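2024-03-11 09:14:02 INFO worker-7 job=invfold-0412 stage=load source=structure_tokens
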């Protein structure tokens, strides 16, 4: 047996199942107490194998061939060991085996990792989420070209400095989409997606040390905008000469009274509208983002939108509830609607979901647990992001408190 500091190499032979008189030669790699074996695909007659010395005796030609083979194997494993040392990677029997067989992933690159992740997540992530990963991939490639003057880089070169420089690059670079500028939280989302991909590489032992280990995501708390009761009324009543604006407004209003996200509304089918336990119409669907079931009783305004488009030729017989419109175009039209309504807020379709959670439900006394269920959240803490303390609700709560205190005071005086 030959040892090189922390790993050992020796050769063993096992009988072939098809012919017990023939032996298959294996190399056994040991690192501390870990063992890995590799078949060398060489056969030797059992009569020439020395079990005690783990070598060939009695046949000069076979012995010379084995001596050459074993020397070559030892050399390759020693080189593999040195390679792992130089790359400061964790040395294990499996890592040496993979390196010996050419299955070592240390030569994988950043672009290899991003492609591997995105290809394998097609059936796992929602299309919108996967699209965001592709955007992060584009920024990483742009960073490699502009900062490092290369089109790709080995994963082994990833370090904390690379991570920091990528963040600084995002803060300084011109956004890929001018309509979607990179704010702090947008940058943090790109860093978060890159971290998830690098974590995958670490778990698969493509890299030894996670370069994100000391990195901290710094999200800023942002109050998501929503429409007040008066603002929502303005949007509901306004009519436009542009048909697509009217469609965008109607979809927005439907979401304000149902809480559906764009993708869930886009996928909504007539069969998703059912009669609930109260005999009224309910939405019964599954959230695309979290795969959670959503049951929402239809409020009058939402029901009005359904009835309006039930006879629309764009949806009749097509298995849809509303006409198709892309999320990008929808948000573009909503920004125009906001300006025409003279409401100084950043309009987006997701604002409707915030409006449902705040103005329509929580402000009217619907318990947060019920709102959470209708929004399809798996955690109550997620719903608390939407839980705004509105001035009107504060006022109503204080009026009720004053009345209670006044009543108690009157009882004491009697």
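2024-03-11 09:14:09 INFO worker-7 stage=emit residues=414
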């Amino acid at each position: 047996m030959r040892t090189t500091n922390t790993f050992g190499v020796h050769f063993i032979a096992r009988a072939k199942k098809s012919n017990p008189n023939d032996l298959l030669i294996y190399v056994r790699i040991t690192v501390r107490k870990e063992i890995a074996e590799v078949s060398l695909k060489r056969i030797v007659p059992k009569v020439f194998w020395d079990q005690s010395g783990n070598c060939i005796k009695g046949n000069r030609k076979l012995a010379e061939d084995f001596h050459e083979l074993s020397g070559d194997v030892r050399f390759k494993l020693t080189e593999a060991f040195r390679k792992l040392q130089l790359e400061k990677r964790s040395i294990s029997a499996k890592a040496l085996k993979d390196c010996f067989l050419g299955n070592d992933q240390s030569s994988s690159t950043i672009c290899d990792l991003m492609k591997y992740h995105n290809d394998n997540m097609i059936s796992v992530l929602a299309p919108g989420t996967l699209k965001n990963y592709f955007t992060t991939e584009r920024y990483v490639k742009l960073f490699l070209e502009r900062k490092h003057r290369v089109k790709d880089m080995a994963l082994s070169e990833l370090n904390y400095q690379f991570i920091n420089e990528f963040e600084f690059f995002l803060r300084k670079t011109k956004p890929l989409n001018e309509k979607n500028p990179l704010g702090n939280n947008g940058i943090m989302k790109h860093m978060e997606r890159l971290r998830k991909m690098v974590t995958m590489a670490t778990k698969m032992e493509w890299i030894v040390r996670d370069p994100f280990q000391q990195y901290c995501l710094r999200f800023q708390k942002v109050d998501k905008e929503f429409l007040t009761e008066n603002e929502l009324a303005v949007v509901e009543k306004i009519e436009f000469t542009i048909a697509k604006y009217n469609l965008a407004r109607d979809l927005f209003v439907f979401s304000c009274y149902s809480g559906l996200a764009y993708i869930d509304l886009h996928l909504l089918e007539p069969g998703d509208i059912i009669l609930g336990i109260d005999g009224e119409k309910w939405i019964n669907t599954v959230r695309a983002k979290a795969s959670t079931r959503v049951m929402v009783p239809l409020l009058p305004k939402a029901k009005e939108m359904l009835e309006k488009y039930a006879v629309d030729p764009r949806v009749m017989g097509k298995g849809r509830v509303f006409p198709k419109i892309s999320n990008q175009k929808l948000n573009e039209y909503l920004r125009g609607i906001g300006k025409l309504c003279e409401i100084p807020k950043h309009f987006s379709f997701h604002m409707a979901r915030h409006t449902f959670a705040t103005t329509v439900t929580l402000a009217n006394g619907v318990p947060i647990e019920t709102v959470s269920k209708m929004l399809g959240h798996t955690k109550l803490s997620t719903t608390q992001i939407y839980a705004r303390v509105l001035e009107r609700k504060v006022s109503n709560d204080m009026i009720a408190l004053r009345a209670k205190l006044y009543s108690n005071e009157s009882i004491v005086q009697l």
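2024-03-11 09:14:09 INFO worker-7 stage=report msg="Residues 60-86 form the longest helix (27 residues)."
2024-03-11 09:14:10 INFO worker-7 job finished
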